[in-house]
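Handoff note, outgoing to incoming analyst
You'll be picking up this chain. Sequence as last confirmed:
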Amino acid sequence: MIKLYLADISVLCDPLNDNGKISLLPQERQIKILRYKLADDRKRSLGAGLIINKILNENNIDINSIYYGSNGKPYVDKIFFNAAHSGNFAFGVSSDKEIGCDVEIIKKPRLDVAKRFFTENEYNYIIHSENTSNAFYKLWTIKESYIKQSGEGLRTPLNSFEINISDNDISITENNIAKDCFVTQFEFDNHSFAICSYEQPPRKIEFNYV
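Most recent structure output, in case you need it:
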């Protein structure tokens, strides 16, 4: 079963000045959080850490049971999980199958990035959309969630696979062959969210708030 988690950073204190929440996390994560120079970046990283901590606690998994793939993606034996953060939110997902997620605050579209790193069809989809910002971040978050699900990260060129969007259907193809995965994308509070998984996603979007 896929579960979604959300942390609103606006209600979090800067962990540099308040150690209440950060003290709940492993020391390695605390060090990572405090390396950020800006308070909002520290709070986003704290939010992601709290999400991961909640997922582990819900599944009775000890932090020491986590191991990491060659690209740094964390794994445990019982469950798969992923987290991301941007803008006002940290976002996370868990599943009993491989899963990836992404969130991006919706801003001005990076058409130069799309032209260079997306496929021609994806670029055309963006520039012919009524809302180019939503279209750009829709594709961007789906691409990020897909490469995070695979565990390959940015070693996978963003134009080596294609996002196909028609009506309410979203699919991913590589060399014109459909990939065996489910894609969910939605907007919430001016942020674009995407999930890529091998499990049928929930029909109703419900967050577990951290």
